[in-house]
Amino acid sequence: MKEKILVVDDEKVILQLTSMILRNKGFEVVTAESGREGLDFLEKEPVPLVLLDYMMPVMDGMTALKEIKERFPATYVIMFTGKGSEEIAVELMKAGASDYVLKPFKNQDLLDRIENALLIRRIELHNQELRAEIEKWNQELEQRVAEKSAELERAQMEIVQAEKLAAFGHLSAGMAHEIRNPLNSISLFAQILHSSLSADEDLREYPEKIIKEVDRIDGILRNLLNASKRPHVELQGVDLAKEVENALELFEAQIHRQGVEVETDIAPNPPLIQADAHEVAQIFNNLIVNALYEMPHGGSLRISLRYDEQFFFIEVRDSGRGIPKENLYRVFDPFFTTKERGTGLGLSVVLRIVKGYGGKINVASNPGEGTTFHIQLPIFPL
Ligand SMILES: Nc1ncnc2c1ncn2[C@@H]1O[C@H](COP(=O)(O)OP(=O)(O)OP(=O)(O)O)[C@@H](O)[C@H]1O
Ligand SMILES: [Mg+2]
Where does the Histidine kinase domain start and stop, copy by copy (predicted)? Predict the structure, then answer.
């Protein structure tokens, strides 16, 4: 059996005649006596082709055609028109008719046009499928390009991080050393000055201020050295789960005061990592300090720890203000800070420590939604 064809005409004779011709040629035929009846049929069962009369009472052919094409685009329509209505035929084609047949028609002519319309329909539907497939491939390709680009960007960021770390290490170690000696002298002379002034002297507050400021510079230098070179480390088996717990305990009061909710998701029985406990603590402390700073009026802090045979995966997530995209690549830079009283060394210290164990760290953030730091540490550091 060939395709099903719906014939819509208000003249019964035409319906009978066309049905007979088409059935003879092996088509399945259904009929309707009005446009409305035809549309009701399509609603139940959309057929590939409709033969539609132009001149019909109640709902005229043009209206029926437009509604069919709008609601059933895969149904093709051939119109019957009366002689002398070629101009109307143009309008019908514009409205989506595939072809038109002038009444009275020759049987063979009608059949040829039907075969032709059905052939075009098959080709066009096939083309649509191909286009959809190509579109899908395109999307997959774009997705893969985006994934690979992101991978490349991450790899590049790591290289840049490593280079910065090395350059920063040389510079700061040298500088700190050079500054510390004169700083020592300043401190010493200020102390002499201080002790040589009697207790009631107004001027005494000046050397006091000098000593305090010198102490502050010394603190910064200490941080700087800490961020740039590995101090003497004592390796021992460290339980990361315990370190998370310790760090949270340390900030308990602040967490409570700010109304921050803490959630931990720690995989059971993590293996011990050979590391310096003090260094590991610094990782968590710095990340938690930063996270809490961004949630002055409450929020949530989520720390998770997972592992496989090779790596630990640590995540520290906050629901704070987030990091603007343009700062995302700078937060690990020494001295990069957006805080009035920050030194911008916290994350440099974290980066230096993570790298020291052959690990990786990166950050993801949606401004307004929060920030997540991802750390990957080898279970057996080199
Ligand atoms: N969790 C976070 N949410 C939003 N911004 C962050 C977060 N952590 C770090 N930052 C941004 O990165 C910058 C650098 O952080 P880093 O810890 O290195 O320095 P700091 O906190 O500014 O100063 P320091 O830690 O030396 O006191 C911060 O100033 C802040 O802008
Ligand atoms: Mg910090």
Answer: 174-381
SS3 content of the chain, % helix, strand, coil (to 5): 55, 20, 25
Q: Ligand 2 mean position to 180 CA, how many Å? A: 24
3-state secondary structure of 95: coil
Residue 190 Cβ contacting ligand 1 at under 6 Å: no
31, containing H or E segment: strand 28-32
Please tell me the distance between residue 17's alpha carbon and the centre of ligand 2 in angstroms.
88
The closest of 112, 80, 96, 94 to 6, measured between CA atoms, is 80
Task: Check residue 209 and give left, alpha or beta (phi > 0: left; psi -120 to 50: alpha).
Answer: alpha
User: 66 in the Ramachandran plot: left (φ > 0), alpha (ψ -120 to 50) or beta?
Assistant: alpha
CB 5 within 8 A of CB 22: yes
Alpha helices in 45-202 (DSSP H): 61-71, 86-94, 107-196
Fold of 233-382: Heat Shock Protein 90 (3.30.565)
Residue 170 pLDDT class (50, 70, 90 cuts): confident
Residue from 280, 374, 377, 378 nearest 328 by CA: 374
Per-domain residue ranges of the chain: 4-105, 233-382
Residue 58, sorted as left (phi over 0), alpha (psi -120 to 50) or beta, turns out to be left
CATH number of 4-105: 3.40.50.2300
Q: What is the C-alpha to C-alpha distance for residues 169 and 110, in angstroms, rounded to an integer? A: 87
Task: State the ligand closest to the CA atom of 322.
Answer: 1
Q: Angle, to 10 degrees, between the axis of helix 35-44 and the axis of helix 61-71?
A: 10
Dump pLDDT digits (tens) for 195-226.
998 877 888 899 999 999 999 899 888 888 87
CA of residue 242 to ligand 1 center, whole Å: 24
pLDDT grade, residue 167 (50/70/90)?
A: confident
Q: How confident is the model at residue 162 (pLDDT cuts 50, 70, 90)?
A: confident
Per-residue burial over 215-226, b = 16 or more CB atoms within 10 Å of its CB, e = otherwise: eeebeebebbbb
* pTM of the predicted structure, to 2 decimals: 0.63
343 lines ligand 1 (CB under 6 A): yes
Contact of 65 with 79, CB cutoff 8 Å = yes
Distance CA 204, CA 213 (A): 15
The amino acid at residue 347 is: L
